[in-house]
UniProtKB/TrEMBL annotation:
GO cellular component terms listed in the entry, alphabetical order: cytoplasm
EC number, as in UniProt: 2.1.1.193
Ribosomal RNA small subunit methyltransferase E methyltransferase domain boundaries: 78-231
Keywords annotated in UniProt: Cytoplasm, Methyltransferase, rRNA processing, S-adenosyl-L-methionine, Transferase
Protein name: 16S rRNA (uracil(1498)-N(3))-methyltransferase
The organism's taxonomic lineage, starting at the top: unclassified sequences, metagenomes, ecological metagenomes
Enzyme class: transferase
Known role: Specifically methylates the N3 position of the uracil ring of uridine 1498 (m3U1498) in 16S rRNA. Acts on the fully assembled 30S ribosomal subunit.
UniProt source species: freshwater metagenome
Enzymatic reactions: uridine(1498) in 16S rRNA + S-adenosyl-L-methionine = N(3)-methyluridine(1498) in 16S rRNA + S-adenosyl-L-homocysteine + H(+)
Family: Belongs to the RNA methyltransferase RsmE family.
Amino acid sequence: MLTLFFVEDLPKAVGEQYEFKNEDAQHAIRVLRTNVGDIFNLSDGRGAWSRVVVRTSEKKVLHVEVVESGFEEALSTSFTVIQAIPKGDRVKEAIELSTEGGADRIVMWKAARSIGKSDDKIEKLQVTAREASKQSRRFRIPAVVGVATTEDIIDEIARVDLALVFHESATAKLSQVINPAAKKIAIIIGPEGGLTDEEVDSFAAAGAKVVVMGRPVLRSAHAGLAALSALNTALSVW
């Protein structure tokens, strides 16, 4: 699969000449050794993409020509991952994994037992989502928003067709509550210390389904990817 880079001023017309000269271009030149004749994809991160071929190469600039362009429509099923903020570098890992798993939107949530802080990191986490989108060849970069309160999450539940709270003490399985007609889905992932009874009760009262992910108890940062994988399969997205 072709390498993907993001640019703000995406060239779209076949035959159009373009100077690729941002930080990604320097990475392509210095690290990937991209040279004349190589082909890769550019995207605006909102679905539009162009396939380009390198015509000339300089120290910090690649001069490319558009050979094909298109637009990737959003899937009819959208996923919002509501992630209780993990501690340390695991917050970055959570963003990377949810992005690679197909999340359309990631909400950072300050749960009662959250140890980590992301109040001043949302912009950096958006960059993490951008980099993970390149890695997974996504033409649409998920939005990273927050930091949300528990009351905000209750509002999120009201805006989706199906909200799922994954909790190790739940008795219901995902397969028992899945709604094949659901198009807007929220996945609520608790912190390392677990959800409080009050949080679970509040979310359930707002209409969320409380389900168990399986016998293994996953790290908070990894649970979003596992949930996305299960839902994409159950809803025949994959």
